[in-house]
Structures are given as structure tokens and as C-alpha cells.
Amino acid sequence: MLLGIGLSLIAALAQVSGGLLVLSNSHWPRKWQNTLLALGAGFLLALVFLELIPQSFLLTKGNEFALFAMLIGFSAIHLFEHILAGHMHFGEETHHEVVLARSSMMGAVGGLAVHAFFDGMAICAATQAKSSIGILVFVAVLLHKVPEGLTVASVMQAGDHSHKSMWRANIILPLATLAGALLVFFFVEIDATLIGFLFAFSAGASVYVGACDLIPEINKSRGRSAPIVVFLGMLLFWIGAHFLNSLAGL
Q1: What is the per-residue pLDDT for 72?
Q2: What is residue 99's DSSP assignment?
Q3: Dihedrals φ, ψ of 26, to 5°?
Q4: Which of 74, 158, 176 minimizes the C-alpha distance to 121?
Q5: Three-state SS for 89?
Q6: Residue 247 and which of 94, 97, 132, 195 are 20 to 30 A apart at CA?
């Protein structure tokens, strides 16, 4: 039961570490960030289509209910990012030479906080359903946690904010990750059927993050390496899934 909380905590700490790289004036090469995002996108999309969606059908005991929950998850994160939070993409967030408007800066941080909240939900919901899937979700989330931490600190830096304000922003995302995990952890005990909905909801939200946020940014990079890395991320998922399933005796 506590595995999901523990994995969410590790993911949150990874997010903090990404922000610390900026706060400590360390230089994170743009190429490395793009590579990590591409790897994470491939892993995440393979996870959604090969594990999350099929498993959500089983957990909800009805394909129509699962599909409806996925649609809600997809629509919810789209609503938060583009209507309530004014989401900005990763590439725009890391251009330090432009001083961002306060509304754009807060929108970017808010959008990433929504990502983090759903990440925590996905990790904990997947772990409650099946430990091996939860670990795979954790790996997929972990691959983009450091870039997210880099991003939120970069946004605050581009907005010409104080070091103290940057520290506060760097804590928002990890807390959002833990909040999402705790929400699932406590409510699953109240209603066991809720986990099926949350699992499908997380699948829909993950589709949005992978296809609408990560892939468009990866497509902006020049050269042929990015799509190859995306494919490697998918391959990494496939290898990891088979390895964990073999350990579980499936």
C-alpha cells in the first residue's frame, strides 16, 4: 500500500533536483534535456497503449466506463493547461534571454503543477492495481521529472524573480506530486471501485501529456536523433514490462 507513496516521494525529490541545478547556477545542456524528454515520451506512450488502457478495461469492468474516464482525464488536463493555467511549452520556458510576463510565468508553473499532480495520481493508482505496473509508471514519470524541475526554476529565473521565490516555485511541483498520490491512497480505501476510474483517468491524462506536450516539443528539435530516442523509450518500456512480468511469474 505504501509503495505508491514511496515511489511518488522519489519522483518528487527528482523534480527538486532538477530545480536545484538551475538554482545552483549549474548548466544543463539543452541537448540532454531534449534527449530525456524524447526518451520519456516514448516510454510514456508505450505504457499508456500497452498497459494502462488494457488494465483500465479490466479494473473498471466495462470498456465504456473506462473510455469515458480516459476522456475525462484527457479533457481535464487540457482544460487546466489551456484555459485555467495558460500552459507554456518546454521550449519556450527555457529561453532565459526573454523576461516573461508575470501571467505567462504563473501559467507555466500552474500547468506544470497540474502535470505533477496527475503524475502522483498515476503512480499511486497504478501501484494499487498492480505493483509491476506501478513501477513502470514511476519510471515513465521519473524520466521527465528532472526536466520539469529545470523548467519551473528556469521560468522563475526568466521572470527575474528573487532566489527565495524560485525556491518556493521549486517546491510547488513536488508537493503537487505528493498531493495526487495521497488523494488516491486515502480514497481507494473508501471505495475500491474508485481505483478503476482513477486508473483510466490517469491513462487519459498521460495520453495528453505524451502526445500534446512532449511530442510537439521533441518535434521542434533538429536532426534525426529525437524520433529514434522516442522509439528507444518505447523499446525500453517493452523490455522493462517483460522483465517485471517475468519476475512476477506472469
Answers
A1: 93
A2: P
A3: -75, 155
A4: 176
A5: coil
A6: 195
Closest CA to 84 of 101, 102, 107, 105: 107
Residue 187: its pLDDT value, please? Answer: 75
Cell matching residue 216:
510537439
pLDDT of residue 92: 43
Residue type, 144: H
Give 85-100 as a DSSP string.
S----HHHHT-TTSPP
Nearest 5 degrees, angle CA 203-CA 67-CA 113? 35
* Rounded Cα gap, residues 177 and 18, in angstroms: 15
Collect all residues with Cβ–Cβ distance below 8 Å to 234 and sequence separation of at least 6. 42, 43, 45, 46
The three-state (H, E, C) secondary structure of 165-177, written as one string: HHHHHHHHHHHHH
pLDDT, position 68: 92
**Which residue would you say has higher pLDDT here, 181 or 99?**
181
Q: How many residues belong to the chain?
A: 250
3-class DSSP state for residue 249?
Answer: coil
Residue 111 or residue 96, greater confidence = 111
If we measure between CA atoms, which residue out of 240, 11, 248 comes closest to residue 118? 11
Q: For Cα atoms 48, 212, 229, give the angle at the middle one, nearest 5 degrees.
A: 65
Q: What is the reported pLDDT for 10?
A: 93
| pLDDT of amino acid 175 | 93
Burial classification of residue 76, based on how many CB atoms lie within 10 Å of its CB (0-12 exposed, 13-18 middle, 19 or more buried): middle
For all residues of the chain together, what is the average pLDDT?
76
